[in-house]
Structure formats: C-alpha cells, structure tokens
Amino acid sequence: MTSLSGVRSQRKNSRPLSPGDMDYIEPKTKSNLMGKLLLLASLIILAFIVINKASSFTSPSVFSRREEGVTHVLVTGGAGYIGSHAALRLLKDKYRVTIVDNLSRGNLGAVKVLQRLFPQTGRLQFIYSDLGDPAAVWCLLTFEA
C-alpha cells in the first residue's frame, strides 16, 4: 500500500515478538557490596604484610647513612656514555655514587661494568627511575637518599 506522498506505510504486526526479534537488553547487575568490602580488606591486609616484611622500609639503606669524610653524589643519566664515565671518575676518587636512569638512552651494561669494578657494599647504587615523574622524584629524594 502506498500513501499519497509515495512512501510505503509499514504494516503493523499484531503477533508477539519472539526472543530472536528483540534487541539485546543488558541484565541488571547486582551491587555486590560485601564482595567489594572483602576484597578491599584483603588488599589492605596484604599491603600491611608486604610493608612489614620489606627490609627497606624498616632498616635504613647503606646509602642513607652519613659517614664523616664521604661525599654522596647523585648522577642522573649515569647509564649513558657521559654519565657512566663521570660515575667512574667519582668512584675512583672515593665518592659514594647513586646512578638514576630510566635507560631510555643509556645502557645497563655500563652500570654492570661499574658494579664489577667497584663491588664494595655502599659504593655504587643504581636506581631505575624516570626523573620526569614527580612522584618518583619525591620517593627518590625522600626514601633513598
């Protein structure tokens, strides 16, 4: 059947729709409050256990202790060519060195060579960190040094 405007009118079907004819309706999800609270409590307990077991949180690092006559130097980008050579010179001159690098341009092999040359505890420390991240810098300056 056509109407006066030339558009075909649709015929209404009086039969009920079968499940195949209906659009998908998402089922209502229950709010599982008890499950969420249980998960939160278990994560908090796990965090406390990890913090209590970690020795770095309870005892000070060798690098955080102050020694008379020993200068502690922070070398950023110390895994690169210039930084690794600067760290080598500082280590030869009896400085305590902490290298911070995210290895975007540096080479971990340079740090390993320095660690083999100076195996004494408390002489050389390498920290993989990005100085572009303010939270990482805050943790580095607060907890490591």
Please provide a written account of the structure:
The protein is an alpha/beta fold and 145 residues long. The protein has a domain of 78 residues: NAD(P)-binding Rossmann-like Domain (Rossmann fold, 3-Layer(aba) Sandwich), CATH 3.40.50. Helix content is 40%, strand content 11%. It is built from 5 helices and 3 strands; from the N terminus they run H-H-E-H-E-H-E-H. The chain has a 3-stranded parallel β-sheet, with helices on one face. Helix 4 links the parallel strand 2 and strand 3. It starts with 32 loop residues before the first helix and ends with a helix.
Instruction: Tell me the overall shape.
Output: elongated
> Strand content of the residues, in percent?
5-15%
Helix content: 40-55%
What's the SSE pattern?
A: HHEHEHEH
CATH class of one domain: Alpha Beta
The stretches of 5 or more residues where confidence is low (pLDDT under 50) are: none
Number of distinct helices: 5
Summarize this structure briefly:
This is NAD(P)-binding domain-containing protein. With 145 residues, the protein is α/β, with parallel strands linked by helices.
Topology:
Blueprint: H1 33-53, H2 55-58, E1 72-76, H3 81-92, E2 96-101, H4 108-117, E3 124-128, H5 134-144
Parallel strand pairs: 1-2, 2-3
Output the keywords.
145 residues; alpha/beta; Rossmann fold; 3-stranded parallel β-sheet; 5 helices; NAD(P)-bd_dom; NAD(P)-bd_dom_sf; NAD(P)-binding domain-containing protein
